[in-house]
Amino acid sequence: MTSTTTPENPDSPAPTTASVMLALHQTALGGPEVLRLTELPRPSPGPGEILVAVHAAGLNPTDFKHRALSIFLPPPPLTLGWDVSGTVAETGVGVTLFRPGDEVFGMLPYPYGAGSHAEYVTGPTRAFAAKPAGIDHVHAAALPLAALTAWQALVETADLRSGQRVLIHAAAGGVGHLAVQIAKERGAHVTGTASAPKHDFLRELGADVCVDHRSADFTDTEERYDVVLDTLGGEIATRSVGVLRPGGVLVSLVPGADATRAVAEKAGVRAVVLLVEHDRAGMRAVADLVERGRLRPHVSGTFPLAEGARAHVLGETGRTTGKLVITVR
């Protein structure tokens, strides 16, 4: 069952001294049980960096994968987390965009900038943007990695335009539910795959057609798409080639798509793999959509930092709608 504990809950981490902080840390790879609330030295911002007092930090599937396998990162010890929303505590040499006290949100450089599942984190100034005033830190923390991924996939890579048709796999998930909204903002016709109980949610977001992945085959249609956003990989990615129009593009978020590329070339379509990048312009575009009421993250549960392992357990079920968020302050 999802926790709804708020940062004010007495179970939340106690304040630390100026030189140390609490972090959800691991010294070995493995299951959620390797995560421990640990006292660590508080970082200091280097040139071009800001120190952020973390209010909330989002969870993403990449956190679960790196906890167990450390795919792109060096071996533990390490602190995970790329999403962050908080307040600027200090600025490093050369920083002109922010001052202490500013509320910011952003994605630490992926993959090597992890560390937001802690009371403080440092990152390059241009990984951040001003937090939208209309949402709280919890919802702001749910956005960066997933929203940037959707934006970079649909807008910058696929150049999705008004009137085009897009298929979004796992459309009720973290990236998917934001991609639906971004696609609708672009004027596209959106088909999303998800289990039947999530179809009402997708329709509320603007999806035009919903496909139950448990009982229907998404390829069993005469529909042809200009863009497919693949969040699942494997057979789903390869089979998605067959529902693209000639000249269409498949954007996969899962590495290892060589077989899919070969199939795509034969079919006269393009298949690419996207690895999200930190991007101030992208963050400001996301913030603008939020401020205009065109993009809203769905947070299905929050967990205090001390219970971060429980959040990993829930997230790894793969059944979460929208995002899970760790609350810190």
Kindly summarize this structure in a few lines.
This protein has 329 residues and is of the alpha/beta class. It has helices at residues 61-69, 137-141, 144-157, 174-185, 199-205, 234-240, 258-267, 280-291, 308-315, and strands spanning 20-26, 36-41, 49-59, 78-79, 83-91, 103-107, 120-124, 128-130, 165-168, 189-194, 209-212, 225-230, 244-252, 270-273, 299-304, 323-327.
How would you explain this protein's 3D organization?
The structure is a single chain. About 25% of the residues lie in helices and about 30% in strands. It is an alpha/beta fold and about 325 residues long. It folds into 2 domains: about 20-145 and about 295-325, Quinone Oxidoreductase, Chain A, domain 1, CATH 3.90.180; about 145-275, 3-Layer(aba) Sandwich (Rossmann fold). Strands 3, 5, 6, 7, 8, 15 and 16 form a 7-stranded mixed sheet that branches. It is globular and about 60 Å long. It starts with 19 loop residues before the first strand and ends with a strand.
**Unreliable residue runs:** 1-16
Radius of gyration, CA atoms, in whole angstroms = 20 Å
For the secondary structure, the number of strands is: 16
What CATH first level of the largest domain would be assigned? Alpha Beta
Overall pLDDT, averaged? 93
